[in-house]
Amino acid sequence: MMNSNDVIRKQVLKGLCTGLAIVALPLAVGNAFYFDNKSYLLAFIESLYFIVALYSLYDIRNDKNIAFHTYIHVFIITFIMFFGEIVKPIDEGVYIWSTAAPILFYLLLGCSNAFIYSILFLFIQIGSLLFEIALHDKNQFLLSVINFICTYLVITVISRKFEMEREAAQDYIQYLGAYDPLTGALSRNSLIKEMNEHSDRYSTFVMFNIDDLSHYTKKYCYQESDKMIKEMAERLFNTVDKECLYHLGSGRFVMLISTHYMAESSYHEHQQTSDIMASISNAPFLMRNHDEFMTLSAGITEITKFSTIESIWSDAEDNATLAQLNGVGCVFKNNKLFLSS
């Protein structure tokens, strides 16, 4: 599945192929037949790009070889800009096209690669322009080259700033989707994704509920309740692997026990669940200067080869409900009392 970075790069590449394919064909005809300074080789390259762009559009529409087409287009476009600058006199200002290169680099390649490509291409262009000025004694264009360099650098800086902020925003959105903002634990979305993709790595699904949470919320307000849930998560992180703990909201946690962990650890299922519940109940939580002892109830279900996430989730919820109905600090498995604190 593509994230938004991949989506926007796909859209940019698609627009680039469409736009430049439309431009490439008339330019090829002009360079071959109509322009004063004809260049049959440049016309051939532009015609070749037109064909490549159509092929790329076909693959892009089918989500095939996106990364390959991205780098191919970066290479072809920069080569055409550079080659056009060589075969055309500086008077025609073909080098001005190069100012678009940083935008393409950052939108197509991202911040990690675009800066190097942008600076390298700038040095190549400067070398080419200065060589032509020295070769043909066109010193009157030195000021134009300086203006070109300044414009190129300004566009590079703006492109970099935009792309860095866009990528940072995307990373933050992904973080919000993957982690619970209150506790810092993995979220419901992460749990569903993990179960859909890697359920074979786990043997047990344990769902914990905070006993009498609504009572404490009414007594101390939501702010104190959230503070308590956050502290509870910190205690759980000290007891179990953070990557195996998920917060579903409303004081409900899920722990996944891996098959590897079960096979090699000295703790068995009973011991591990008991340790988690003890980490919560052994020490009080401070709520408005009052010590409150909290407990957890839990429902356990086994993850088998033929289990679906819906059946696992439903079975764990049923057992967790039975545990709460039976009293505080209870754990149910297979609709039977498994552990009682």
SSE map:
Elements: H1 4-34, H2 40-61, H3 66-87, H4 101-109, H5 111-136, H6 142-178, H7 188-198, E1 202-210, H8 213-237, E2 245-249, E3 252-258, H9 259-264, H10 269-281, E4 285-287, E5 290-292, E6 296-302, H11 309-326, E7 330-333, E8 336-340
Parallel strand pairs: 6-7
Antiparallel strand pairs: 1-3, 1-6, 2-3, 4-5, 7-8
In short:
65% of the residues lie in helices and 13% in strands. The chain contains eleven helices and eight strands.
Task: Kindly describe this structure.
- The structure is a single chain.
- The protein has 341 residues and is α+β, with helices and mostly antiparallel strands.
- It has two domains: 4-178, no CATH class; 188-340, Reverse transcriptase/Diguanylate cyclase domain (Alpha-Beta Plaits), CATH 3.30.70.270.
- 65% of the residues lie in helices and 13% in strands.
- It has eleven helices and eight strands.
- A hairpin with a 2-residue loop joins strand 7 and strand 8.
- The chain is elongated, with a radius of gyration of 31 Å.
